[in-house]
């Protein structure tokens, strides 16, 4: 039995120790907002916050995740009130299919927590690990800068 | 322009007791925003708030039959059908209210889900339906539509209806479907597609933890397990012996698409003949989420949750694979990862259905990234040869164009219908210019690579060649590329788009050293697009897309920001194809397994600015925007590279090496 700290709650799961955090989120905890893209940490679709940093949950085992405070896309909003980054993505319509959106938002939250007023270049660098095939990069940059502006 | 089938109100529109308007369409949403656009169209005609409209898409048990969500035609065709059905529904409601109130229908207005009389009496739609039953009947061909100046919803930007669910992680993509008793399936794919299974040793796999069943169904071999990783591990423990099929010999097919008299003579007699060849490689649809599906096959019935662009086509394929009548199969489309044509194939859905049938429980199959690259479909490669005569006053006097590619379309390279090939493999091979003498021939050759529908089919390939070549002709004629194009344009809307983008970009203005701009345009399924790219070329030949401008005229615009988003994204994706992408294979076997070997554009590569001006003519019918924006991008970039450094690169991707080679370095 492993106890994980996810979205502010302790969650006990009974899985093999080498099981990926991504698999536990999706298969055991029904937190399907974190998505599989490549299984190699190359696309960003499965990013979660681990102690405030954006990490690929496909590369993290439950054993490694046990000591970390994990926040998934489902843990960002305060009830019905969206996190400012989520709200900014809505306002800029910074999405198309939305499959990569969770990961992008996680990267943006991690960035703004450490650098509340980033330059455009810093936004591009911070989100560079998040691939988007629909091509909403320009809108996503605007959304992150908008969220930063809202946090001023 | 587009034929409208006889439509009936009840096939399209239903109003529920609480006033909710249910709109039914066989199209599916995968990020294009059509759910939102459809809701806007229906809300507009019925005078209800957009929140009162529930759009049901693609569920084969609920919606009218549809051939597929392809070709950027959803708003043009189904949007119009919904709009007309909603207008008819409103007319029926007004007629009922007129009878009830004893006044002339012409005196009645509709507002906020109710019919309103001049004296202020109001009858809500549900009250009008309580007596006399639901709305039904044919939609007359001449059903009056709300005039454009009266529009309060259509033509105004609307945040996409699924935005909140997407940013909170609540949106359910195909692989997010959770059913009671759900198991996870994985399939052992043979090294060569179509191989026959000679022998299978599954003893190790059967003994592995979590394995519920090892399934052998003809040549399909898979494992169903409690967890996905368990299924994957067990598949890797299978020992299979495959008989590799011999390559199928298929003949080339030549189709003449246009053959004006005197082309050869014009070319033979011309003082100046310009010739060039262009080439494009195989590329991957490369969805971020690999193919996925959930199937629940029990008691002689099947329910399939899939990210499909052809729910009714998939229903027939699943029925055939399971030996069930079509009526026993229900396909419920889920939001998929964007797949850009790839989901015209049922891949994971057919596998999930067969595994579920064997296991007797619902099964989720999601391919791995490696499988998505290795056995997912690709865009056909293409080569294009163009010859043109330039007459003394710098006009095209004869045009000969030969396109060589493979079969495009949802059935992929193994099926070719010569009747439809000009519209698929030959899409946009005929230029939008007023050339008096043109000959356009399509040569279709077999490919060992598995191909499928790909966003814009062959249009992006043809327009890369045509619009690059127009630039080469302009250079030879010593005429500005914009002016040279305008010289050959008779269509007023194409002219307007070219002039609009040139004005917006400041075409002809001074640029920083090492920068260049290129222009290109197209007419794609009724949508006019003109674009200007600005690139920088580094000393080592590396091209960076810096800025981009686009003017797009898709007729009447439903959701202006939705149009901009689609076109911006199309430009970004097409720039990625143009500068980075090539799917490598050895005799049909894809050698790419991950994003490291198939880089696509990232946040770092995205241009500083993509400006999309929507110049839709509201008096013209709506046309699509899902594909047209990407079509001229490669040529705009190639032409910009030429303007920046003099390198004419005729093969994409436009790599630093190719730029250096074009410069003789």
Question: What's the short story on this structure?
Answer:
The complex is a heterodimer of chains A (152) and B (665). Chain A is an alpha+beta fold.
Helical residue percent band of chain A: 25-40%
Give the ordered list of helices and strands of chain A: EEHEEHEHHHH
The CATH architecture classification of the largest domain in chain A is Roll
CATH superfamily of the largest domain in chain B: Aldehyde oxidase/xanthine dehydrogenase, molybdopterin binding domain
The appropriate CATH architecture of the largest domain in chain B is 2-Layer Sandwich
Folded structure, characterized:
The complex is a heterodimer of chains A (152) and B (665). Chain A has 152 residues and is α+β, with helices and mostly antiparallel strands. Chain A has 6 helices and 5 strands. Chain A has helices at residues 21-28, 62-65, 84-91, 101-114, 120-127, 137-150, and strands at 2-6, 9-13, 47-50, 53-56, 69-71. Chain A has a 5-stranded mixed beta sheet, with helices on both faces. In chain A, helix 3 crosses helix 6. In chain B, the strands form 8 sheets. A 7-stranded mixed beta sheet of chain B has the order 9-10-7-18-15-16-17, sandwiched between helices. Chain B is built from 18 helices and 28 strands. In chain B, 29% of the residues lie in helices and 24% in strands. The chains are: A alpha+beta (152), B alpha+beta (665). The interface between A and B is large, with 58 and 60 residues.
């Amino acid at each position: 039995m492993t106890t994980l700290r996810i979205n502010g709650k302790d969650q006990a799961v009974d899985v093999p120790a080498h099981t990926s955090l991504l698999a536990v989120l999706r298969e055991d905890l029904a937190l399907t907002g974190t998505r599989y893209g490549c299984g190699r940490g190359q696309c960003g679709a499965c990013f979660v916050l681990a102690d405030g940093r954006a990490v690929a949950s496909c590369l993290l085992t439950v054993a490694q995740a046990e000591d970390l405070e994990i926040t998934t896309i489902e843990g960002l909003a305060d009830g019905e009130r969206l996190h400012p980054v989520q709200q900014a993505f809505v306002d800029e319509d910074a999405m198309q299919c939305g499959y990569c959106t969770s990961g992008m938002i996680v990267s943006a939250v991690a960035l703004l927590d450490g650098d509340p007023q980033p330059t455009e270049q810093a936004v591009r660098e911070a989100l560079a690990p998040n691939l988007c095939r629909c091509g909403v990069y320009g809108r996503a940059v605007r959304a992150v800068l908008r969220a930063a502006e809202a946090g001023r | 322009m587009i034929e409208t089938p006889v439509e009936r109100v009840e096939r399209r529109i239903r109003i529920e007791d609480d006033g909710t308007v249910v709109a039914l369409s066989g199209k599916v949403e995968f990020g294009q925003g059509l759910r939102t656009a459809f809701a806007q169209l229906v809300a507009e005609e019925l005078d209800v708030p957009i929140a009162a409209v529930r759009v049901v898409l693609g569920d084969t048990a609920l919606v009218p039959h549809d051939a597929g969500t392809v070709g950027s035609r959803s708003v043009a065709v189904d949007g119009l059908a919904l709009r007309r059905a909603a207008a008819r529904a409103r007319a029926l409601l007004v007629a009922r209210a007129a009878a009830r109130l004893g006044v002339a229908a012409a005196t009645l207005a509709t507002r906020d889900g109710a019919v309103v009389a001049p004296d202020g009496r109001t009858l809500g739609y549900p009250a009008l339906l309580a007596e006399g039953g639901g709305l039904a009947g044919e939609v007359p061909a001449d059903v009056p539509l709300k005039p454009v100046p009266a529009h309060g919803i259509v033509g105004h930007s609307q945040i996409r209806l699924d935005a909140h669910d997407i940013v909170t992680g609540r949106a359910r993509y195909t692989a997010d479907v959770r059913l009671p008793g759900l198991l996870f399936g994985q399939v052992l794919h043979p090294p060569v597609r179509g191989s026959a299974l000679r022998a299978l040793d599954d003893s190790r796999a059967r003994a592995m933890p979590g394995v519920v069943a090892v399934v052998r169904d003809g040549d399909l071999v898979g494992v169903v397990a409690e967890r996905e990783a368990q299924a994957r591990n067990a598949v890797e423990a299978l020992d299979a012996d495959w008989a590799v099929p011999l390559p199928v010999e298929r003949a080339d097919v030549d189709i003449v698409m246009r053959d004006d008299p005197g082309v050869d003579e014009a070319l033979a007699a011309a003082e100046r003949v310009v010739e060039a060849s262009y080439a494009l490689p195989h590329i991957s649809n490369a969805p971020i989420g690999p193919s996925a599906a959930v199937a629940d096959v029990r008691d002689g019935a099947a329910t399939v949750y899939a990210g499909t662009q052809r729910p009714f086509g998939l229903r027939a394929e699943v029925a055939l694979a399971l030996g069930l009548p079509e009526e026993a199969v229900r396909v419920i489309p889920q939001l998929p990862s964007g797949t850009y044509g790839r989901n015209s194939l049922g891949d994971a859905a057919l596998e999930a259905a067969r595994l579920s049938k064997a296991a007797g429980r619902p099964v989720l199959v999601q391919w791995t990234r490696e499988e998505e690259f290795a056995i997912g479909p690709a865009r056909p490669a293409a080569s294009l040869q163009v010859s043109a005569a330039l007459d003394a006053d710098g006009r095209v006097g004869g045009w000969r164009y030969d396109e060589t590619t493979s079969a495009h379309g949802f059935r992929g390279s193994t099926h070719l219908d010569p009747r439809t090939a000009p519209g698929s493999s030959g899409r946009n091979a005929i230029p939008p210019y007023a050339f008096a003498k043109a000959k356009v021939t399509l040569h279709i050759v077999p490919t060992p690579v598995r191909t499928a529908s790909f966003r814009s089919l062959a249009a992006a390939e043809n327009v890369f060649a045509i619009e690059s070549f127009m630039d080469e002709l302009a250079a030879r004629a010593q005429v500005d590329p914009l002016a040279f194009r305008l010289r050959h344009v008779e269509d007023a809307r194409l002219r307007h788009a070219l002039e609009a983008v040139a004005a917006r970009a400041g075409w002809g203005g001074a640029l920083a050293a090492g920068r260049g701009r290129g222009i290109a345009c197209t007419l794609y399924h009724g949508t006019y697009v003109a674009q200007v790219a600005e690139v920088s070329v580094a000393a080592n030949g590396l091209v960076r897309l810096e800025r981009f401008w686009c003017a797009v005229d898709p007729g009447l615009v439903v959701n202006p920001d939705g149009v901009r988003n689609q076109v911006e994204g199309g430009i970004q994706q097409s720039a990625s194809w143009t500068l980075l992408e090539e799917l490598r294979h050895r005799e049909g076997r894809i050698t790419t397994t991950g994003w490291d070997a198939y880089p696509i554009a990232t946040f770092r590569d995205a241009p500083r600015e993509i400006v999309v001006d929507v110049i839709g003519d509201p008096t013209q019918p709506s046309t699509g925007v899902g594909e047209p924006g990407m079509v001229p991008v490669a040529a705009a970039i190639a032409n910009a590279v030429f303007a920046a450094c003099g390198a004419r690169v005729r093969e994409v991707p436009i790599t630093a090496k190719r730029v250096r080679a074009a410069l003789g370095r």
